[in-house]
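Homework-ish question, so no full write-ups if that breaks the rules, but can someone show me the predicted structure for this set?
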Amino acid sequence: MNKLTKTVSLLLLSMFIVTACIKDPLGKIKGINGVKWQGEYAAPLVNVDLNLEDAVALVNPEWINSFPDKTLVVHYDKKHFSKKGEELYALYDRSFNGNIVPTSSELNTLSTSGMVTVVRNLVFDMAPGAGLQFDSVWLKEGVFTAGLSLNTNHQGKVTLEFPDFKSSGLPVSLSENWSSGGSISRSPFHNVSGIESLDLSKANQGFNQIRVKVSWELTKTGTVGNNEQLQLNLTTQGLKFRKLYGYLGQPGLINVQDSIDLTIFSNNILKGNIVFEDARIKVRFNNGNGLKSQYQVQQLSLVSKNGTPVAVTSYSTAGNIAAAPDNADVTPIADSVYVTKVSGSNVAAVMRTEPHYLAYRVGVAPVAGRGHVWDNSNMELAVTVELPMLVSTKDLVLEDTSDLDLGIGKEGDYVEMIKIKMNAENGIPLGAGVQCYFMDATNKVLDSLFQPFRYIIKQASVDAAGNVVSASTDQWELVVDKPRISNILKAKRLRIRAWIPTSTYNASPIPVSITTDQKLKFKLGADIKFSADAKF
Amino acid sequence: MQNSKRRLLIVLMISATSWLSAQQNFSLYHMESLPQRSTLNPALLPDCKWYIGFPGFNSLGFQATNSGFNLREINNAIDINATDTFLNLNKLLNVFSKQNYLSLKADQTWFNFGFRVKKHFFSANITEKAGIKFGYPKDLFRFIIDGNGGPNLGETFDFRFSADAYHYREYGIGYAYQLNKKLTLGAKIKYLKGINRAELTDAYIKVRTRPEDYAFEINGNYQLNVASSLGQIITTNGSDPVLDGIGLVKGIKNTGWGLDLGAEYAVSNKLKLSAALIDLGSINWKQNATSIVAANPNSTFVYDGFHISSSDTAIDPEAYFERLGDSLKNMFGSDTLQRSFRSTLSTEMMFGASYALRKNLKLNALFYGDVYNKRLMGGLTLGIFWRPVKMFSLSLNNTFYGRALLNPGFCMAFNAGAWQAYFSTENFLAPLIPGSARGASFRVGWNFTFGRSKSRGMGSGDPGNNNGGGKAAPIDPTSI
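A: Not a homework solution, just the prediction itself:
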């Protein structure tokens, strides 16, 4: 064996020994049948910087709006509507018959001149119903049909003209002609298209009637005799109006007896009270009809929890409601009955007793006279309880309980810890504390959210008049560890309890004004720790 | 579609070319019989009077490295109990360095030759070099696996990425001068012709989660430079690139200069010290050169939760998301510039020592380093050089770098008359123990050498001194 062979052999032997001493690193890797992992992730959730006007717009609750002076208002409304014009009044299908026979003079003219035109002016009665006098109508649909039955020996033509019935500003007319005598039947018709006007006041009666001019042209083509006759049957079908003028009677528009729940008092208050310093009731009428009307407020009572009514005092029990103007479209006009302590009413004082509902009875009818309605116009009655947020609370605690299904399955086992962090700056003289109680199906409390309890937002500082002088700042962390997460995931029911204190001045509760320009800022972030020992 | 085609082309170009950094195979450094050692130190001369490489196959090198991890390190992230074997993702993070790199590179010398005139040695070469290197941060995986919460609140995660790809041709002329019996000085000047270049520089996204409100503070920057003699790869009008293969050989306007400097000093008959600084220089890329740069470099974006604000988007989430999108677009938006750019060569330094135990047996050491992404990356190779017979020489060594302590390599050279063949490899255990490998490389070639010493112990630069030569060859330090 020469040196080269020895060298190569030595090299190969060395390599063999080295590689033999090294464990196969893939051995352990091949045996992997699961993954262990622990990670903690933080993220900002929301950054809120809202004045109450935008906050209200964002949540858009039906029961909050604001006054022009920016005061927020809790309100409870109920609305009632009268029938619409087209439900109150109808243009019934009508039929009118006329018989036209040429006079001997007209026949003589035909015989001598070879042609004659027989003209008759007729009146068609719409007969809308007892006591109703229609002056004019804006028609939006329907058909006028002229049934013509003729006995004639001659070529001729019949034309019907409606001088008071105009389509696109021109009188409507119907005509038919024929080339030789015989027994002839024709039915020319007119379909109402768009809005067409029909003046019913031009005939002698002054209402409800349509004038028709019938012209029968005869051209001699046969024997002139006494058998010439035109029978006219004029009918209306399916006429509907867009607008109707006249004496429209005095139908009862609204006659309602109802109540409004004041849920802020009747629901959810566990204890304590809330005082609205300037409660009001508004009865508003929106008249879309062109008929002057009259209202009667026959009852307005605030009813306590045990059903005892207290009559609201000092308000107008009857009055007129102006007619809507005669515009191209419905333009309602509003009239209101506003009941406040300023007008001497007891409403604010009674509201301090935290009544559970408002009971009312109201009627509305047109006064006698001529006017107009649209097909879709009506009378609206809106009864509103307004609770402007010049408010104070004392030990107010609200509570609600509901079923709970977090919809988290076994994935919840991977959550080790949840931390919520909040930084708040509150310019509203209203604070908030929330506690969530997680319960099993038998309402046994398994866990609660804040341990110990704390307010999540502190109220702003106010002056002696209840106006905000400085915002409060606060920051807190809520940590929910694994055992508590487990309890929460087991929960079937949730009880939420909310504490809502208003600001105090010199440690005494005073009414505070909550306005749309007050601001709330807060940032909310979450840090969640996951842990998994998952097998493949 | 056009953008995706362009991106694909860039990726293909990056994949098809090679990284600018260290092109050499360090096993060669002490292989006294090989002319190719002068590519690492122009003062290190072969033991022949003149040589010529086999045209097209005198030096073909390939290297693949991964600095991130090897399979053996994954074992440390495995938890075993009585019944189960778990991969612990959090422990798995330990396999990564702060910055990690993947690189592939290749070089091919078309032509080289050299000859000695008394104390002067002249050489020349034409070499094609190409490669790709991709850098990725450990923080990316830390962010995903450990998360940004808990103990990591307030920490800045630095997602810093880099990518270099290039292809250039080197025309080199070398000169070495034996100043006296102890000192030899050498230099090589290189004329460079750039063919393709894509570099992603200063590209990062930094994310910090504020402890006080968990808001994300994000800032970032990037710059992508692309140039090619083949055609316009990134067009400003959105049209498809038109490339022409003729640009590989003709009309190459991306030029530059490089310089290698080296010295060898014989402290005694047994001990030699050497030092070299190679790949000084740069290439000016001006042919179809385009830069995509961040429109607002280093601008900061803060996301502090979904905004519900009276001032802007009180009740309009769509408007908020649009604004958020605009902010991000503003932050990560880009400007495309038609402009030339300069890329420097990845300069490497080497310090070698060789001690002769016997005439044909030497102990060698080599320290080397280069700078990539503002980080000095270095390593140490220790080995022996043995020439048992004149026709065969062997270098056996091990390289230490980073957390990888076992990286054995060797280089063998065979001579039969003028014909010379050699083969070297780093981390030759990689095919046998792939789990331990972070990379592997090889180099192979044929030369014709003339006027070699008749003694098997003759050293370089000293044809009359038969003291032998050769040292272990470390793996490319840039793969560390």
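Now go work out the reasoning yourself. Hint: Residues 2-295+333-479 of chain B form a domain with the Porin fold (CATH 2.40.160).
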